[in-house]
Amino acid sequence: MTTTPAPAKRITDIGPPHYEKFLHPLIKKNYGQWKYHESVASGVLRHVAESGDEIYSVRAGSPRLLSTATIRLFADLAEKYCGGYLRFTSRNNVEFLLDDRAKIEPLKKELLALGFPVGGTNNAISNIVHTQGWVHCHSSATDASGIVKSVMDALHDRFTHEDLPAKLRIALACCLNMCGAVHCSDIAILGVHRMPPQISKETLPKVCEIPTLIASCPTGAIRSATYDGKPSVEVTEEQCMFCANCYTVCPAMPLNDPENDGISIWVGGKVSNARSAPKFSKLAIPFIPNNPPRWPEVVDAVVNIVNVYAKHARKYQRMGEWIERIGWPRFFELTGIPFTRYHIDDFRYAGTTYARSTHIRF
Amino acid sequence: MTTTPAPAKRITDIGPPHYEKFLHPLIKKNYGQWKYHESVASGVLRHVAESGDEIYSVRAGSPRLLSTATIRLFADLAEKYCGGYLRFTSRNNVEFLLDDRAKIEPLKKELLALGFPVGGTNNAISNIVHTQGWVHCHSSATDASGIVKSVMDALHDRFTHEDLPAKLRIALACCLNMCGAVHCSDIAILGVHRMPPQISKETLPKVCEIPTLIASCPTGAIRSATYDGKPSVEVTEEQCMFCANCYTVCPAMPLNDPENDGISIWVGGKVSNARSAPKFSKLAIPFIPNNPPRWPEVVDAVVNIVNVYAKHARKYQRMGEWIERIGWPRFFELTGIPFTRYHIDDFRYAGTTYARSTHIRF
Amino acid sequence: MADEGVKTTLLDELEKGPWPSFVKEIKKASETSPVCDDLLGQLELSYEEKKGHWKHGGIVGVMGYGGGVIGRYSDVPEKFPNVAHFHTLRVNHPAGWFYTSDALRTLCNIWERHGSGLTNMHGSTGDIIFLGTKTDELEPTFADLTKAGFDLGGSGSVMRTPSCCVGQARCEWACYDTMKLCYELTQTYQDELHRPAFPYKYKFKCAGCPNDCVASIARSDCSIIGTWKDDIQQDDAAVAEYAALGLDIQKDVCDNCPTKCMAWDGKKLTIDNHECVRCMHCINVMPKALRPGKERGATILIGAKAPIIQGALLSSVLIPFVPADELLETLKELTGRIWEFWSEYGKNRERVGELIQRVGMANFLDAIGLEPTPEMVAAPRDNPYIFFQKEDGKPKDGDGQ
Amino acid sequence: MADEGVKTTLLDELEKGPWPSFVKEIKKASETSPVCDDLLGQLELSYEEKKGHWKHGGIVGVMGYGGGVIGRYSDVPEKFPNVAHFHTLRVNHPAGWFYTSDALRTLCNIWERHGSGLTNMHGSTGDIIFLGTKTDELEPTFADLTKAGFDLGGSGSVMRTPSCCVGQARCEWACYDTMKLCYELTQTYQDELHRPAFPYKYKFKCAGCPNDCVASIARSDCSIIGTWKDDIQQDDAAVAEYAALGLDIQKDVCDNCPTKCMAWDGKKLTIDNHECVRCMHCINVMPKALRPGKERGATILIGAKAPIIQGALLSSVLIPFVPADELLETLKELTGRIWEFWSEYGKNRERVGELIQRVGMANFLDAIGLEPTPEMVAAPRDNPYIFFQKEDGKPKDGDGQ
Amino acid sequence: MAVTVEQLAEEMYEMIKEAMGKKSFKATDLAKAMIAKYGEAEVSKDDCKHAIRVLIDTGRCVYSYFGGSYITLPHKEGAAPD
Ligand code: SRM
Ligand code: SRM
Ligand code: SRM
Ligand code: SRM
Ligand code: SF4
Ligand code: SF4
Ligand code: SF4
Ligand code: SF4
Ligand code: SF4
Ligand code: SF4
Ligand code: SF4
Ligand code: SF4
Q1: Is D361 helix (H, G, I), strand (E, B) or coil?
Q2: pLDDT of residue D266 exceeding 60
Q3: How far apart are CA C337 and CA C339, in angstroms?
Q4: Distance CA C131, CA C86 (A)
Q5: How confident is the model at residue C391 (pLDDT cuts 50, 70, 90)?
Q6: What pLDDT, on the 0 to 100 scale, is given for residue A4?
Q7: Mean pLDDT of the D242-271 span
Q8: Which residues on chain B are in Cβ contact (under 8 Å) with D322?
Q9: Residue D1 class from Cβ within 10 Å (0-12 exposed, 13-18 middle, 19+ buried)?
Q10: Of A133, C233, D141, D235, which has the most beta carbons under 10 Å away?
Q11: What is the pLDDT of residues D35-65, one digit of tens each?
Q12: What is the number of CB-based contacts under 8 A between chain D and chain E?
């Protein structure tokens, strides 16, 4: 690690500022004393305290990748409408906290004028949790922000309206590391490689520990070899399932490739314990090629799934709950997505995913 | 293989006799034309054909291990009451097939007098599917017939009455090979070892292939070693989970032991697709010592589970469906069975059995 | 006589109680067969010592066959010389376990002549088990059996005796003729039943409907389970009758339907057959009012087995629906391809279900020439570890291997 | 200015449409920070070539810390020299992501002074991400941050920045004070956050109730999820009001209850709280009428993670219920024991959830001194492969080893 | 305590230098090695932690990161060479 000389008296290990400093006085007063909430309008919540106090939250969509200019804008708005108090949500939206109902509409108007949609509450589609992509990560099989922008453009009305059967959470991760934690999303957009690591034979011995590298491969596809008399490795391509774990531990094993990188779509995951237990997302579409700048095939695929869900699910049914009700064969039939060999699990719990009953719809 | 000289003209590969030869004329006539059935009394079914014909089945419990004397007795009864037509069921009961309703009672009376209870139909406990045990198998960790007799004595009323919430199927296997296919039973009684194989060092090299033996151990507990200069094996005891697969491939690896062999009890499996999908039985009691001749602790354990189930399950709920409704913690609470480290899975799908939600009853 | 010959203090306890006693059976047999005294003696010893007294295995059989006999030797032959050998024969039962009194007596005659007179009616796989004889008697027993029209079942690495539920012989729900299929499979594969050529055992079981009264989904490598494709046959008058007789149709029927595809308004029962998964529950509860549809056939499933050694498996869907009249042909063709693949790639003692898990279902389907369908899975994969194939990926040239 | 400096034909497409555009953000930042032009340029290249242009890793940081900075270097530095270095800093956010305008402006000032002016509000783990600066600026940024009362978050093999839902600050369902717990965990483990000493990363997330608005059960090695032990608080008048307003209580509420423990007779709602699994559904639907009970606390779960490399995991129950006021102490004690075991036995890059699967839950419980309870499992084992322990088995002497 | 933190730091430093390019050590590897050498009575985990902190805070060693974090000698700044 390269560090630059530090000042004489360094401050370290202070942790983040205490949150109390940033709480709206009304929130501080009613902390832990909230009684109930209701939806005032799409994107606007009203929380009522035991004391009778009320706080309004106005939620605006954000691209997450924000310039300081925009953050200053949010700060200005907060100052103008709510004493300077705001927060961000666990899905990267921004929430303005108002104690004055009258200021809701003016704030909304200003936000909209500035290009920030208000919504994402209740049974709307909220912001897409996502990751770095080509903007900052070395590992990505696709971009993150560009797809999110394209998909949210198409789903904009679903953000500003609360008319889905239930919450619908979309997440994107640009590689199998899944920093977007897409594994439990109603719809997950996941960047995938399809090319085995292309060994940089020259650099490998310089930058990687070969035993660690060999051990990193879950399928045992990497074996030691020599190249130009120097220790190196080779990959049995048939055994590679493109997880890129080897690349994480050794930079000389890149997998990315313009033609073979792309997107897979997964559906039916959830996190909440509401009604049913949390669930993993399952494979819907194994591969869609990267098609920047607007990834139209990915957008269409997501919109199609959302529309079919919106049409067929019963009230309060999350994507996965709906699919469990109708069965996976029907999901593929209704969405028109082809079922392929790739949908059949062959990883460690594969056996538990086969249909071990005669419960079949015809 | 030792074979004795065969007669000049041997008949082979003829397969079993054609079943048609053995069908009651009324069955032959209405074959595939049955319309509905109903229960006439416990152990007595009435099947009605499209033609209006009726056949009555009287089902009697059997110990399965039958002397020819008893088989002749059944033959005589069949001749006396139903033209000589009878069958056995998939759970080893015997069924007399009558076309004359009037003969049901006399037949029942005679069966009862001979010591053969009539029942096992509908929501009764039927016969216990079981295996050889000490009567014939080398592999057994317990006897089969003795436990079955003891348990069925205690559950006799549950055989002759149809008053459980649903069917309740008990099976017994005397070792992990599970010839009684206990793995999907409402209640499974399973013989288990708890002692690692005791290597017969003298005989091993003579009777076993060492590589095959080593490969047979799923946990890799068996390693090669030498004994008296001859190739042999040794067992890492901590790695042994007593499956006896090594013994199956090598007689010099016996596991049986009077103190350490015994019984485990498993619950909640089912085979039918009715309502819920088929399920495996799950561990209820890890170990009960062998206590011949009547295994009172095993009998008590089974009777207790049956009674708790009978009391708490809703109509049509099989054991496993009931437990899934109330949750496993409640099952252990209601039955008073202690939950131990052994109940927590640590085999290949273990991860899928942990409680991965906050759905908890308090 | 047993009562004189051997002391069975412990076993005698098992003559008490209402359930028929196997000890009584052994004693009965010992009246005609002296070997049963020694069996009782050895069993009593096991009861005293809490331990079996049979040696491991033993390689005996009838000429030309590789299965159907389980060799068994006592480990205390000096004490019980009559059970020094105590082999069993597995005799292939008639489909559906139907007999006439005559047929039973024929079997009894043979077994009293050549063996202990003890049987299991039946073994867990379905065979008639002739329990206990000496090596010398194997061939004569076999000769008598075949003369009487019976043949041996399987043991070892063979196809085992197929079995089936009572099916159309006495059940209104049988969606195909289970006994016929069972019989024909048995006859078709006589060679595979008698001459071990597989990596391990292979079992067929035929159930006429999803109630699966022969436990095929849990106990057979290939499970054939009847089902239907069209709508449940419904007799509204009969439904009303059940209701009038006190059946709570909402609670007992509709609420137990796994897909909740039934509605009862107090008068009329409506089934959304499009959503029905053919579980049988409603039909089971109201057999006079509801019946399986008319377009009948079976689902073919693959791979069930007991836990040794990778853990127990239930069969999983291979072909969602085969019309009843195409079942035998389809199965023959399919089985040929399955056995070919299994024989080629199966490891020693690897059941077909384990092989599928090892190579992956998709590769197995490729090998046997079936297309993947979503009915084969409970859910698609949830992990991103997809072995994309070369045709799909377009590997570029580069300095990789 | 971006518009003059670089051609971004493809990226310009992403300025269109109603959703706020990240491209606009980068362009906005490029008005004050020239590095953003090169970022746009390199990104445009990525869009043309369908390929990222960042090199693998890079080892930079602030003095004394082992994490909090992600080093990043361009693989086309000759074309885009301003992003030749483009490291990010992970800045630990205030619990609940609450800010004042002032605090935000302070952060902006620092980042405009030292970096690109681009951020993520927030990163997936919860940090404020300062996106892109040069090595030389790391230490000065850090100095300014700490002076302003902020500190770095984690990267590498450390405890990561804990995060939490808004909790009692604005949610009526929070069963414990998530923000306080989150803050205190963060402060307690400053050393573990900044100096890598673990086999791999370790994440805490605190959710106030089973709705889990911070996805803790899916995304944290240790998930603390609020719940209650006594009965749901019920206001019958408010229930009636919902009904009057048209809520179909039977269909929308009762029928969706996972345990079907609710009954509605058209007037009175009855909850069999003994059967309730605290799923939140009924409360979610009728927030004015139903509320979590009064005996509040949390369930502690362990082991969630993304799929690399053994497959994704959800956290599983470790302690079914800890009263709210004992949470911090319990967690400290428990975490100490967990980390000790994990540090000792975890393999390099093995998350705690993977370790548990590898050694078995029962052994893990032994190691951390917890008793097994049935709440920890969805179901007991279904395979018979039990490692009976020596104390239970009584191995005899013999010729075995 | 028989072994001082400084001594531990010195020995760890030697270990790291020795293995440079062949093997990277994690904090626990170093601690385990020291405890194995001196015994738990002489050296505690905390001592080792302090020793590592000495190495890092003086800049003699730095943390590196490839999938996981290691303690190594400082080297030229930059990403992995290609
Ligand atoms: C603000 C936020 C917490 C925070 O600390 O930032 C939050 C706040 C609330 N959540 Fe949430 N949830 C928030 C992320 C989540 C997440 C996490 C996620 O999406 O990654 C989940 C889990 C999602 C999942 O299961 O995949 C989540 C699952 C819920 C649920 C359960 C929904 C369900 O039926 O499964 C409820 C209850 C409901 O909506 O009926 C809920 C309800 C609520 C309530 C109504 C709680 C309350 O009484 O205040 C809040 C307003 C919700 C709304 O949007 O209408 N919140 N909520 C998060 C807003 C994210 C956003 O910007 O959209
Ligand atoms: C910045 C961030 C994504 C984002 O855009 O928000 C991120 C970015 C990276 N993550 Fe992550 N992870 C980020 C949150 C996550 C999460 C989500 C979470 O914490 O809730 C996960 C899934 C949850 C989990 O921990 O399992 C996650 C799972 C991974 C993994 C897989 C870990 C695993 O055990 O499965 C890796 C690979 C690794 O660690 O070797 C990884 C590795 C990486 C690296 C360091 C790339 C690498 O291979 O070394 C990425 C650096 C990108 C860059 O250039 O800036 N990142 N990473 C998130 C951290 C921001 C923050 O501090 O707030
Ligand atoms: C005779 C027999 C078939 C045979 O070829 O021998 C048979 C015959 C019938 N079964 Fe069965 N079942 C027979 C073994 C089974 C088995 C297999 C087993 O127990 O090993 C099962 C699967 C058990 C399981 O799931 O573990 C089985 C699950 C059913 C079911 C589904 C019950 C459920 O709710 O899960 C029904 C439907 C019902 O009873 O409502 C059924 C219904 C029936 C009916 C009513 C079918 C009919 O219309 O004729 C028959 C009378 C049942 C009765 O006992 O009341 N039969 N039935 C078997 C009798 C065994 C015995 O002696 O007790
Ligand atoms: C006789 C019978 C038990 C009974 O009392 O009914 C039986 C008895 C034996 N079985 Fe079995 N199995 C019998 C049905 C079963 C079944 C049930 C079934 O077929 O429906 C199973 C479970 C289903 C399955 O096939 O998985 C079964 C699973 C096993 C296994 C474990 C196989 C596996 O792949 O998991 C073994 C061990 C082996 O093959 O190495 C085994 C091995 C044995 C051996 C040959 C012992 C051995 O290790 O070599 C037993 C001989 C006992 C003896 O001395 O007579 N037996 N065996 C059953 C055959 C009678 C018949 O032909 O009708
Ligand atoms: S998901 Fe992969 S590519 Fe995307 S930020 Fe995380 S590690 Fe990088
Ligand atoms: S990408 Fe994954 S499977 Fe392929 S070689 Fe690398 S580590 Fe192995
Ligand atoms: S279960 Fe085991 S002991 Fe019993 S008959 Fe089968 S192989 Fe023998
Ligand atoms: S009993 Fe099973 S686990 Fe134990 S040594 Fe034998 S094969 Fe291995
Ligand atoms: S499986 Fe079906 S068809 Fe066969 S006997 Fe049972 S209920 Fe009848
Ligand atoms: S057969 Fe089963 S799924 Fe179909 S309608 Fe009847 S109960 Fe429902
Ligand atoms: S997790 Fe529960 S307590 Fe926290 S914000 Fe969501 S609903 Fe409220
Ligand atoms: S919280 Fe969930 S389980 Fe409990 S009563 Fe409400 S809906 Fe039912």
Answers
A1: helix
A2: yes
A3: 6
A4: 8
A5: low
A6: 54
A7: 96
A8: none
A9: exposed
A10: A133
A11: 999 999 999 999 999 999 999 877 889 999 9
A12: 76
Q: Give the separation between CA C300 and CA C224, rounded to whole angstroms.
A: 5
Give pLDDT, residue D395.
Answer: 45
Ligand 12 atom at minimal distance to the Cα of residue D277: 3
Please answer yes or no on whether B277 and A359 come within 8 Å at the CB atom. yes
In this complex, the residue of D73, D197, D349 whose CB is nearest that of residue E79 is: D73
End-to-end CA distance of chain E: 47
Identify whether the C-beta of residue B139 lies closer than 8 Å to the C-beta of residue B248: yes
Q: Which helix (H) or strand (E) holds B210?
A: helix B210-216
With 50 as the cut, is the pLDDT of residue C3 above it?
no
Distance A179 CA to ligand 2 centre (A): 4
Determine C/E contact with 3+ CB pairs under 8 A as the test.
no
Asked if C373 has any chain A CB less than 8 Å from its own CB, the reply is yes
Q: By percentage, how much of chain C surpasses pLDDT 90?
A: 93
Q: What are phi and psi of A214, to 5 degrees?
A: -60, -40
Task: Please check whether residue E55 is in contact with residue E17, taking contact to mean a CB–CB distance below 8 angstroms.
Answer: no
Ligand 8 pocket member B246 (CB < 6 A): yes
Looking at the complex, report in whole angstroms how far the Cα of residue E80 sits from the nearest Cα belonging to chain A: 7
Rg, C-alpha atoms of chain C: 26
Q: Which residues of D touch E80 (CB under 8 A)?
A: 55-58
D29 vs chain C: nearest CA distance in angstroms? 36
Band of residue E24 on the pLDDT scale cut at 50, 70, 90: confident
List pLDDT tens digits, range C147-188.
Answer: 999 999 999 999 999 999 999 999 999 999 999 999 999 999
Q: Is D133 on the interface with E (CB under 8 A)?
A: no
pLDDT-based confidence at residue E23 (cuts at 50, 70, 90): confident
Mean pLDDT per 10-residue interval, chain A, length 362 residues: 59 97 98 97 97 98 98 98 98 98 98 98 97 96 98 98 97 95 96 96 88 92 92 94 93 94 98 98 98 98 98 97 97 98 96 97 96
Q: Using DSSP bridges, classify how beta strands C204-207 and C163-164 pair: parallel, antiparallel or unpaired.
A: parallel
D311, D384, D385 member nearest C383 (Cβ): D311
Q: For C112-203, list the strands marked E by DSSP.
A: 118-121, 128-133, 163-164
Residue A2's pLDDT is what? Answer: 52
Decide if B139 contacts B247 (C-beta within 8 A): yes
Quick check: D392 pLDDT over 70? no
Q: Which residues of D141-158 are buried (b: 16+ CB within 10 A; e: fewer)?
A: bbbbbbeebbbbbbbbbb
Neighbouring residues of B277: CB distance < 8 A, sequence distance ≥ 6: A356, A357, A359
Residue nearest atom 6 of ligand 7, based on CA coordinates: B179
Mean pLDDT within D260-269:
96
Is-cis flag, bond preceding D110, omega within 30? no
The Cα–Cα gap between B152 and B144 comes to 12
Q: Do residues A302 and A187 make contact, with C-beta atoms less than 8 angstroms apart?
A: yes
The radius of gyration of chain E's CA atoms, rounded to the nearest angstrom, is: 13
Joined tokens for residue B331: 């099952």
Check pocket membership of A185 for ligand 5, CB cut-off 6 A.
no
Residue D399 pLDDT more than 50? no
Closest-CA residue to D129 (of D86, D178, D96, D100): D86
Helices and strands counted in chain A (H then E): 11, 12
Is residue C59 very low, low, confident or very high in pLDDT (cuts 50, 70, 90)?
confident
A361 touches chain B (CB under 8 A): no
What H or E segment, with its residue span, contains residue C245? none
Q: What mean pLDDT comes out for the span C21-28?
A: 98
* Any atom of ligand 3 within 6 Å of the Cβ of B122: yes
- Complex ipTM value: 0.95
